[in-house]
Amino acid sequence: MADMAKLEMPDDYYAQTPDANVRATEAVMNTIKTADLLFDRIGRLLRPLNVSAAGGLVLGILRDHGVMSPSELGERLIVSRATVTGLLDSLERRGFVTRSPNLDDRRSLVVEITPQGLVVLQQLRTLIHHHEQTWMKFLTDAELGVYIETLHRIQDSVAVATEDVD
Questions:
Q1: Which residues touch 68 (CB under 8 Å, ≥6 apart)?
Q2: Which residue, 91, 131, 98, is CA-closest to 114?
Q3: Helix and strand tally (H, E) in the chain?
Q4: Burial letters for 55-66: b for 16+ Cβ neighbours within 10 Å, e otherwise?
């Protein structure tokens, strides 16, 4: 497979934005490109399992953390209430989750993964983890550790910067 075109800034970058940092811009743009590429590849891998990447995250959260309310799922996924509802509708239609009244508060619902959802989740995780190893095989474990720590630092920085804007 040929190398993908690399995102690079134009020669007159600083003439356009003198207060900017070309490396920071390239880093952000390439991070977004990488995330989009991974999200697209994962979506393609999951299509035969009849589940989206976001749906797979919901199944994983429910499997790993147990029964929870749609709002708790939304907080873990960091998506809107409407998005959670759509995901749950889709997963419930496929028989991967069930929604039932919350025994502690009958005005609310709880979501639970079904046995069929557990089977699909196991297939999904096996498939994704295999490909993750392939995608990251050019990095040593030490390099992966540095990469993960760097991503965490970026995430923390973006989260703090976002709080300043809100």
A1: 61, 62, 110, 111
A2: 98
A3: 7, 2
A4: bbbbbbbbeeee
- How many Å apart are CA 67 and CA 84, to the nearest integer? 15
Q: Give the pTM.
A: 0.76
H or E element, residue 110:
strand 109-113
Q: Tokens representing 9?
A: 């800034």
pLDDT tens series, the chain, 166 aa: 446 677 778 888 888 888 999 889 989 999 999 999 998 999 999 999 999 988 999 999 999 999 999 989 988 887 778 889 999 999 999 999 999 998 888 788 999 999 999 999 999 999 999 999 999 999 999 999 999 999 999 999 998 876 665 5
Residue given tokens 């589940």 in the structure block: 51
List, in order of start, the domains of the chain with CATH numbers: 21-165 (1.10.10.10)
- Give me 135's structure tokens: 């995608």
Query: What residue has token string 């709080």?
Result: 163
